[in-house]
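Sample intake sheet
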Amino acid sequence: MATDRLSMIFAALADPTRRAILARLAEGDATVSELAEPFAISLPAISRHLKVLEGAGLITRSRSAQWRSSSLNPAPLREVQGWMEHYRRYWDVNLDRLDAHLRRIQAARQDNDPQRNAPTAAQPPETEKRNPS
């Protein structure tokens, strides 16, 4: 089991049910029953998902009388975004280099295309200049 914070966050985000729960909590706080509503799984299963999300710091849970509600905590998502930012920059640079390379190849092909360089009716072929004798 991963123990570093980033691994715990990624492990929590790996499950589609937990991602759906986070999406719902982005709209506002909800109880376990409200969170379980769209899923065909038991309340204890939803509670286990909530424990994983809470362990990763992605949600906080509070109790008011007999109601226990969950809230989204976006701070860990910023940590993930910060970690991924390095790789986004890496891919941006490399994709820009690939784009430039493909443009060079395309330009070279166009320069070597005989049909592209053939004279058109609007442009008569250049004739050699002859010396008048």
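Comment: The two ends are 94 Å apart (CA to CA). The first strand starts at residue 30 and ends at 31.
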